[in-house]
Queue: 4 jobs
Job 1
Amino acid sequence: MTQVEQVKALVERTADKTVALAKEIWEYAEISYEEFKSAAALIEALKAEGFTIEEGIADMPTAFTATYTSGSGKPVMALLAEYDALAGLSQKAACPVCDPVEPGGQGHGCGHNLLGAGCFAAAVALKDYLADGNKDGTVIFFGCPAEEGAGSKQFIARAGYFDNVDFAYTWHPATINEVGSKGSVAIMGANFTFDGVAAHAGGQPHLGRSALDAIELMNVGCNYLREHMIDAARIHYAYSDPGGTAPNVVQSHAVIKYEVRAPKTSQAQELFTRVVDVAKGAALMTGTKMQYEVTMAFSDYVPNRTLGAVADECLQALGAPEWTEADYETAAQFLRTYPKATMVAIKENLYAHFDPDELEVMLKKPLHSSIYPFNPKETGYSSGSTDVGDVGYATPTVMFNVATACLGNVGHSWQNTAFACSDIGMKGTLRAAEVMTLAAIRTMEQPELIEKAKEELIKKNGGKYLCPLPDYVVPPIGKY
């Protein structure tokens, strides 16, 4: 039996459990910091497989570790699981027509039910590999809530849980198969609260000091700031509390959320400081008082190039999920649900990867059936953010993508929720589990490779993980 065949057999042992777990978590569809049933399902499944559980880590009730140790316990390998859903994306499983299970309800529009279940399968496969071969090593399954919210991995890293981990692997449901060469950008967010003085807006407006005016002026200032920041940076905002619904009352209290992104953590922190200065100016102009509370921050993610080559080798060896004609037809049905304007954008994006003639063929059978190669010299960033970046500054870390949805599928959509509980999604999940298992085995059996990955990490972090959050910031449970 080859190593690839051995890994496939290991993952196959729990394939039915993995699919059932993915479907169970999909049904729960719990949002950030509220994933009690989802975490419990994973914990129960891991306990049954002989893992030791530590619940409520880093002051988060739905965060946990599941650990299995064999022999000396070295090396220590981590798998990073997520299981939170998104608000407003309820949708029936595998249904190519927008039809929510619960109108306005929650749904797994980013496929984190698949992500968590895939990590479960890999953790059990690695445990069995150690036990069957009487080998040394430790497998730690990290249950990480709230990736779609304020995150959890930065709090887990700050608490020191990755200090003795030798390397970490994870994956994400996607439309393509690749070990992503690009990084993702850092992000920092806060709630800005303005307090003024209420007054009758018609009779005595001169006695009022409007918190809503302060927020409006903050938005104007940040809009002018956009011209004077680097092209790769972003500023987002959303009203949290506009101060009431009565226009004849000067609003005395208002809250707005702001987030900034930039390729490097230091750049995001510098831009955030400028946003705070704008808020101070808005308060000064309106005679209000301003306070801000940092609620979240993720470091930028850069794949460990040493481990990236290993993961790429494993993904190439295992190949894309094995699609059937029924899978291709389902994928094509979903792709046809997008309006013409969206399809134009989808095709423009895919032209970067396929020749025009090849693309037309792919759009008829829109499931990725090849592997994009890893480029260790890539220095670019995608514009999204993930708290996996913080793990990547604490221990050598790689995240890869496996197709669980049709080519061109839009993330955080009802279509994505449907794919997350489909045969296509399940096939991608099991392939991802195989890749993580094979990559971890090949890494653990090459001590010199682990040392090289750690040397690369030291060049990136200077020898120590520095959390982008101030020490006083705790997980904003119920506040974000």
Job 2
Amino acid sequence: MPYTRTDLAMEAFENTEGGAVPGVSVSHWETDCVQITEVLVTDNEAARELGKPKGSYLTLECPRLLERDPEARLATASLLTEELDRLLPRREGGAPVLVVGLGNRNITPDSLGPGVVDRTLTTRHILGAPCAAGRMNSVCAIAPGVLGVTGIESMELVEALVKALQPSAILCVDSLAARDSRRIGCTIQLTDTGIQPGAGVGNHRKPLTRESVGTPVISVGMPTVVYAATLARDAFAWLSSQSGDESPHEEALADMEHTLLSADIGEMIVTPREIDAIVQDAAGIIASGINRALQPELSDEEIAAMMD
């Protein structure tokens, strides 16, 4: 398999030789203006081939999000709601859903998780109020920060909260890294495999999964960065094509990317100059999808009023 570095399962599959991997099934369809790709990884060998754990990966792509198209935003949020509702376990006995926003709110490309938590309707503390009777599900949320700031691993905090709250599910939100820069700001990935905090920037931490915490973990993320080595590879490929050289040079380009990733430059990441607006918009879209999925008995107007 050619060397690649991406958090998106669909990109890992696209990069496979021959475009087929035993134990992996891929489906594509389109709804409204959103292109949907589902990657199902069903065995351990396929998981090793793709570098992704076994499970389901659903990707929503909508380039019109970068134009701040209102219809595209609504369509993407609605689809996210539907898919989250499908993945979340049935909530019984009043156990809360714990929303975890991973990342560093002081670094814009890494602030998606905390931004979503800021926009998530939390209700665990008001379920006894008359307005909540029979209409609200229990939701709590935390943005645990990052080890370099707090001195505490995200997993340590989540494990403590799981022990105290006994949530029915954990919903994690984090920034991702993409292979293709065109997917930044317009692609959302959902998966039932959990998440590894810091993986998007090569800072691997203890994974947050059902196996590690004993609770279903669903993760949602959007690419906000690409690796500089990946951009260098693409730049050389583009320059080669512009010079009239039609040869693919895939092996040489892959070797170059692998060499760069192995050097100091390999840890450098790149983000668009308009990343502030991209993250703000993405946080709003993802939070809208989460709020609708977790509070189906409330209208959009009621959710907005309670967030003010």
Job 3
Amino acid sequence: MEKTSTTVGVKSYSEKKGTLKWNAWLSKASLPLVLLAMWVVMFFLNPNFLSVDNLSNLGRQTAIIGIVAIAQTLVIITKGIDLSVGATLGISSVISAQLLVSGTSVWVTILAIILVGLMIGVLNGMLVYDAKITPFIATLGTMTIVRGATLLTSDGRIISGLPSEVTKIAELSILGIPSLLFILLIIAVLGALMIRYTVFGRNLFSIGSSEESARLSGVNVRITTYGAYGIAGVLSAIAGFLLTTRLASGIPTAGEGYELDAIASAVIGGASLFGAQGSIIGTVIGSFIMSTLRNAGNLLGIQPFWLQIAIGVLLLAVVFFDQLQKRRS
């Protein structure tokens, strides 16, 4: 009888282990499967969806929001939020256009907007860590200040007349992949390696899990917080430059609403607003899902107001299930 009982116990354990592996695989594969299903449905509704031109356009759209979403993900992992990413993108777009129109070289322009993004990001880090202001309020204030500075810098006017060699950056393809999407993939790979294999990446998760525990474990919470918001600012600035090359102009209102799309992409991709959870690759897929929704709406002639409502409902649903999962665990 003991032998039979042991055999049953081993079998039960093996079955349970197999079920856990299957659930883990299904959890990882669910996002790509959802995206694939969306593309298949769109192909049947409008075959032009899978045309080379539309897919290239989709890739360029995703590249901008994807980079901003990666920036948002790094902050969310620390249990923070950055509402200034869209404003940072906007001011970077305007400054990039102004510098390029004045004859400044591309590389000097990129360096300048990286410094702008870094300063905004570090300011956010100081407000959150040193001033002890809630991330939502701190970055909301920064967003408002930067938006005002953008309008002052540009006088509220669109900056046009960029050199043709600059605007060609967005039109290029590398190995058949739009250059902007290629840049997103490079940033995504570097970001994924950073949060998984570096001390800084592990520290982000430690702070998101428990800031006090991280401090007692020897983590430099100040530097890590500055780093998270600083990198977010830099990535948002780079996205602003890329948007300028795509639109061939600097638009003062560029990036409005991007902070919400970035949060939605990160949360859909597996990031938790409770902190200590997030995936760069998941965020990229989440960005594709968001861009596909907007692209599909345009192809099907759906009013953008309905799309905005659908995206809001989707975000609420994902956050609700995230909270439900946290309560169960």
Job 4
Amino acid sequence: MSKNRINILRKKIWAENLDGLIITHLDHIRYLTGFTGSAGLLIIRKKEADFFTDFRYKDQAAKQVKGAQVKIVKSDPIAALKDYPQFNIKNYVYGYAGEYLSVNARKRLRENFSDALLVASDKVFEDLGWVKEAEEIKNIKKAVEISDIAFERILNIVEPGVREMELAAELEYQMKMLGSEKPAFETILASGYRSALPHGTASTKKLKKGELVTFDFGATYDGYVSDITRTVVLGKATPKQKKIYNLVLKAQLAGIKKVKAGVFAKAVDESSRKIITKAGFGKNFGHGTGHGIGYYVHLGPRVSPLSKDKLMANNVITIEPGIYISGWGGVRIEDDVLVTKTGGKVLNKAPKKLLEL
């Protein structure tokens, strides 16, 4: 598994006229080698791959790392590179993922690889992990199942007076108890006027009767994530709440219906967006319709008006249109969808009918 992934990346090294890649992003490292620790650096060259970590992870790396030689260093991996002159070859060209490398880390790399040439090579990484292997899909399905069950479990404690942060904590606790390694991202839980915030992370606000409550959360299983959004009403829904909810649901179902291998992701976005726009709420839907998920939560393909990506079989993407009205509230509905040659397969089983709690 990992060796094949490294070999795929190695082909890109040749195509980009690089001599090697320096990989510091831990999610990339886990995807490529299987290592789950918090300190490491991977160097892939045309014939070899070497993984650097410190003494804390000696036994763990020996057990987990596949497809690369493990080197245990005395200091942090970037600083330790100076002790390996065989990698610091004059005029050797190493690529790195600039998007995931801080200015300070880039500076330190240049200091310790003074003879080699370092170039940002984000193109090499841009479609890494988009197309899933069978085991990856299995893990995503399990992460989805965990999030679905956790959501069902907390519905009976969604009531007036409960703080958003309490609900978010309980949701994350239930996912953990069901086998999630950690939340896929910081849980978004926003009620009432705050549900108009697309990324309204949980606050100390107390839920009130009659409010919309949006839950956007995900589990992590064996390194793979889920990403689900559901919006409920605390009490009996008003006609306006029903109207907005049903409009978003209609848009989401239209987007899902458009999903199929070979279709441009932009067309999926358009299928959802045109329904909301035609109803007069286009200005209230300001984000993309979805994104890929996998070994972390925002992979490609990107499902947005600006996307140039084409869907491929075994992509897993989110479909998550929303309407957000400042001072009133918002609705978003999101599922994880497996792309196949014949259409999109929704992985979530959590209900999408409007729940009046």
